[in-house]
């Protein structure tokens, strides 16, 4: 099918002018008379001419483009981060291209090759769960393309990153359950090969230790990716224990919803018999009843800060930053799922 898009050559033929004159007139070049500029711009509007921004970018050696690699866009946290990135990038005149690794290191490696050939000026990344090697990111440095990681960041190399303090956040969530009188507190943990979920597990353990509560291995449920289905499996395991946990801290809200629904279906009163705390403040946490106490992980702000840092590194060529870590403060949002009366 023939492309019907109007080109510079079409405009030149229509007005009997050279393509270079047309191009300069569209760019308000001072060397082109005002009458010619108006004539060209009027005709361009009539014919629906759209400048080829990609070709223009090649000439200027600027693409105003940032590549984003996320594990999954169907996870609310990542969609909110993307929204924060995109909002700030748009204000600054940048466009973004989004890729999903689907939590596969192989796919992540393939995406980096694509981005290295797409002339993006910066790349923002959240590592896949499988990623344990980082060689595929090294070429960006050679190409002079700044990298900014968010949430899941490389643990063995210095990088620019936007994070929260997962350890402290988990400690706060567990401490809240303890302050509500819980003494037998379970934890549904994320993949322990991922630093953020390991930190949340360590924060949970530290809170128990500080308050002289025993860590019971039967009360810890390990998952691969904290899916709703995995939460159901862990909740059913807890239900089979001789003594139910009176508090459960979940490393995300999907598993917190699983526990709440499975326990309530089994006749367990929430929060009177078992109090529940999630993590991330997904919309479902304030829709389901009782509403779920959770940690606000500042996902949108994380995206905004990632975009700010990325664009600063792109535009300030004099600035040389080996590594900069920006840590955002979280907050505990207390709702009905943990509001048990203390004795």
UniProtKB/TrEMBL annotation:
<dbReference type="Pfam" id="PF00356">
    <property type="entry name" value="LacI"/>
</dbReference>
<dbReference type="InterPro" id="IPR046335">
    <property type="entry name" value="LacI/GalR-like_sensor"/>
</dbReference>
<dbReference type="InterPro" id="IPR010982">
    <property type="entry name" value="Lambda_DNA-bd_dom_sf"/>
</dbReference>
<protein>
    <submittedName>
        <fullName>LacI family DNA-binding transcriptional regulator</fullName>
    </submittedName>
</protein>
<keyword id="KW-0805">Transcription regulation</keyword>
<feature type="domain" description="HTH lacI-type">
    <location>
        <begin position="6"/>
        <end position="60"/>
    </location>
</feature>
<dbReference type="InterPro" id="IPR028082">
    <property type="entry name" value="Peripla_BP_I"/>
</dbReference>
<dbReference type="GO" id="GO:0003677">
    <property type="term" value="F:DNA binding"/>
</dbReference>
<dbReference type="InterPro" id="IPR000843">
    <property type="entry name" value="HTH_LacI"/>
</dbReference>
<dbReference type="Pfam" id="PF13377">
    <property type="entry name" value="Peripla_BP_3"/>
</dbReference>
<keyword id="KW-0238">DNA-binding</keyword>
<keyword id="KW-0804">Transcription</keyword>
């Amino acid at each position: 099918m023939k492309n019907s898009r109007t080109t510079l050559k079409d405009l030149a033929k229509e007005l009997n002018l050279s393509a270079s004159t047309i191009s300069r007139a569209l760019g308000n070049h001072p060397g082109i008379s005002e009458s010619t500029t108006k004539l060209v711009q009027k005709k361009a509007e009539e014919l629906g001419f759209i400048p080829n921004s990609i070709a223009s970018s090649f000439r200027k050696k600027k693409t105003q483009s940032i590549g984003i690699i996320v594990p999954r866009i169907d996870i609310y946290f990542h969609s909110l981060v993307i929204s924060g990135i995109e909002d700030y990038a748009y204000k600054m005149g940048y466009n973004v291209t989004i890729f999903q690794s689907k939590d596969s290191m192989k796919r992540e490696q393939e995406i980096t090759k694509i981005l290295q050939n797409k002339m993006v000026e910066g790349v923002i990344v959240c590592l896949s769960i499988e990623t344990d090697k980082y060689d595929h990111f090294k070429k960006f440095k050679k190409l002079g393309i700044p990298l900014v990681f968010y949430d899941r960041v490389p643990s063995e190399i210095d990088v620019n990153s936007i994070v929260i303090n997962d350890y402290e956040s988990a400690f706060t969530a567990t401490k809240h359950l303890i302050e509500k009188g819980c003494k037998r507190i379970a934890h549904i943990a994320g993949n322990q090969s991922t630093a953020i979920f390991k930190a949340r597990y360590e924060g949970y353990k530290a809170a128990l230790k500080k308050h002289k509560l025993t860590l019971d291995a039967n009360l810890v449920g390990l998952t691969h990716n904290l899916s709703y289905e995995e939460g159901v499996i862990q909740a059913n395991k807890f239900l089979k224990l001789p003594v139910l946990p009176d508090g459960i801290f979940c490393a995300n809200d999907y598993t917190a919803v699983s526990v709440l629904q499975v326990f309530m279906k089994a006749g367990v009163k929430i929060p009177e018999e078992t109090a529940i705390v999630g993590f991330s403040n997904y919309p479902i946490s304030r829709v389901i009843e009782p509403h779920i106490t959770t940690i606000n992980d500042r996902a949108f702000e994380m995206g905004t800060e990632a975009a700010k840092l990325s664009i600063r590194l792109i535009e300030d060529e004099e600035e040389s930053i080996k590594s900069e870590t920006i840590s955002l403060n979280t907050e505990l949002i207390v709702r009905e799922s943990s509001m048990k009366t203390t004795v």
